[in-house]
Structure formats: C-alpha cells, structure tokens
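User: Hi! I'm working on a homework problem where we have to compare a predicted structure to a textbook description. Could you give me the structure for the chain below?
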Amino acid sequence: MKKNTLLTVMIFAIQLAFSQDYLISFVGSGASNTFDSIRVENLSQETSVMLYAEDSLLLIGSVGILYQNSIDNVLHVYPNPMSNHATLSFFAMQAGNIRIAVYDISGKIITEINDVRSKGFHEYQVSGLDIGSYFVQVTGNKINYVSKLICQNKTQTKAQINYISTVSQNTPNTKKGNLQNDSRSIVSMDYNYGDQLLFKAYSNNFTTIVTDIPTENKTIAFEFIECIDYDGNNYAIVQIGDQIWMAESLKTTHYRNGIPIPNVLDNDEWTNLETGAYCWYDNDISHKAIYGALYNWYTVNNPNNIAPIGWHVPTKDEEMELTGAPSGSYSHSGGTLKETGNEHWTAPNVGATNETGFTALPGGYRLNTDGSYHEIGLGSYFSWSSTEDWGENSWYSAVENINDRAYMYGYFRNCGFSVRCVKD
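Assistant: Happy to help. Predicted structure tokens:
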C-alpha cells in the first residue's frame, strides 16, 4: 500500500428529505499509513462503534437507509495471509457461550476455544499455525461466522487462540455490508446533523485522535507521531490548533535518560521534598492505566527531563494557548477539554463536550501540606507547566466537574499534579 493511500475509494451518499447520510473514509500518514482499528465516539449521543483494517463509516441520518446485510454475517480476520498471528474480530449479538475453531482444509480441528462473552465486539488472536490454508468458525447465540485464513510462515509453536479485548455495546446501532465489487466493509452509525464525533485511530504503537462534525462525505486524516516514554508507555496524541498534545496523562517512572524518579509514599517525606518525586493516587498503582502518575514540580523542572523524546513539559504560555485562561484566572473552555459522560467524571460534569479531543480525566491531586489525596473523579489538574510563578509557586492548569471553566494558577511546587506534554 502506498503512503497516504485512501482506505476507501468509493463515495456514497443517500439524500432524503430531512436527513443526510455521509460516507467517511480514512487515511494515515507520518510514522504509519495503515490502521489496526478506529474507535468512533459520537460525543453528542454517547454511542460508539469500532472499525477494523479497511472499514469505512456510514453516518446514518435520522431518516436514513440502512444496509440490509446484518453484522452477524461478518468475521474480520487480519492480516490475512498471516505470518506469526492473526486477529479475529466479530460482533456477538447476545451474551452467552462462544466457540472459536480453526480447521484445516480436510476438516480436522487444529485448535479451538470455548468462552463466555458479553454482547459487543470481541477480539481474539490465533497463532502457531503451520504454513497452509485454514477455515475459522465462530459460533454462539444467534451467530455463525466462517472465514478462510492463509498462513504463509512455517512455525514450530503450538497452535492456539487467545482472547484480546471486548468493546461492549448494549444497544447495537451498527450494521455492516459489503460494498458492491469491493472487499471492504461499511460500518454504519446513527448520526444527527451537527453531532460531534471523536475518531481514535490505532496503528501498531501509535494512537491519534481527531474530532470532527461531518457535514458531507469526507476523508479523515490521521498523522501518526511517536510519543513513547522511557518505560515504554505509548501515548495517544491530538492536534489542537497549532499545538500537538498528549491525549493522556504521563505515567513514566523514569526520566528520559533512564534515571529513576523516586516513588514517595510517606506523607511527611512528600511535604518536605525539594527534589523530583512521583506517586499514584492513594499510593494505588491501579490508577496508573487511566489517570497516570502525580508529580511534584521539581520533577518537571529536572534537567534529566521527564518528557518523551521529541516532547516537552508545556510552558505557561503554551497552556494559556490551549485553555484560553489568563494568568491567575479562568476561561469557559474547560468543557471542550473534558471527557464526556460519567464513566470517570462524577456528575454533573458540567459543559463537557471534549470537542478538542484532549480528554481530560479527573485524576485528582496530592496536597503539599500533609501529603493527602483529593478530588479523584472531581478535578483534573492536568498539567504542571515548566514556568515558575512568584515565591515557591509554579503555574498549572485544571478543570473541574462542577463547571465549564479551565483554570490557570500558580501553586506550591511540592503539590502532586498530572502532566501532559506538548510536541517540540
């Protein structure tokens, strides 16, 4: 595939009175030009669908026409032909027992797995196959999928099938069908004119977010950029205006050069620090995956550098450009930065639209005076800046669940806040 090759080449639109359907295609560039999957969230309706490989998206208006071929006839297998492994993805119409089996061309079972899964999209990985042709069958409650699979590389490992992930969907609003004379598939999604969509594209270790309000058939372009810290954590990125930001909070436990950052658990020790340190909220590492780490300001100002290569801790001016908040005050852009809904944010999460794709999450903070933890679910103190304020203070930005404001204030340097980096 040539760089910047469109994943979908057909343009399709259905016009009806009071409704409009739009076909959305995708293209990648930068560090990768292919896709593993794309998650599409309708931020206005709080619904989502998952696209794979070369799928395209059909946005169905309120009086639209749906494809007649049901999604229960589709099993995605990619890459196909496979080398060491292939991913199997399918939609379970109902919760219940699932059986996945791989047969050789004589009908002999090579490997199988029996599982219990919820309603929604599921991914499994098949590996260890010898060179040859196979059939993959997925059966369960109201489903019976079959797909051919070719393995090109001879392997000495044991054939097996392993579970990868699930994207639950309590009320499926998608249907699939094959484009005429084309092997690609269309995933359809309910759409009202003016709905805000968030597209999150995955390609190998790269993740890029784009937001858009489609008003016509169009191509969504993703630029894949490396954002990986010393620990090997890969971060989603998003372009907001002229800036490119991490769309997740930093979670590294090392500086860029590999020097460890002290993990300080003791409250008294934390309050007296004048050197770099980090912690997990409530000293509980289970918060790492979603909220990242909390760092004192001495960490972000350390010459060893906490940011991934090619990135840096934002300056006060860069945060002001993101939030629009004047020094020591606030703007009403907070809602555009916050993740929507109440999966992580405590209600009411006022004004949250996430139209920037920044996806601020309420990871709380660690207090400078006694080392205690506060406001998880309530506030996102989403980044220290590298800029000093008066006295023992430095600048940071924050958003809260009770209003739509984005704050820019100076605060004590031994407080624990999250960090988002911006591209050099």
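For your comparison, note the following. The chain has five helices and 31 strands. Residues 15-63+175-224 form a domain with the Immunoglobulin-like fold (CATH 2.60.40). Good luck with the assignment!
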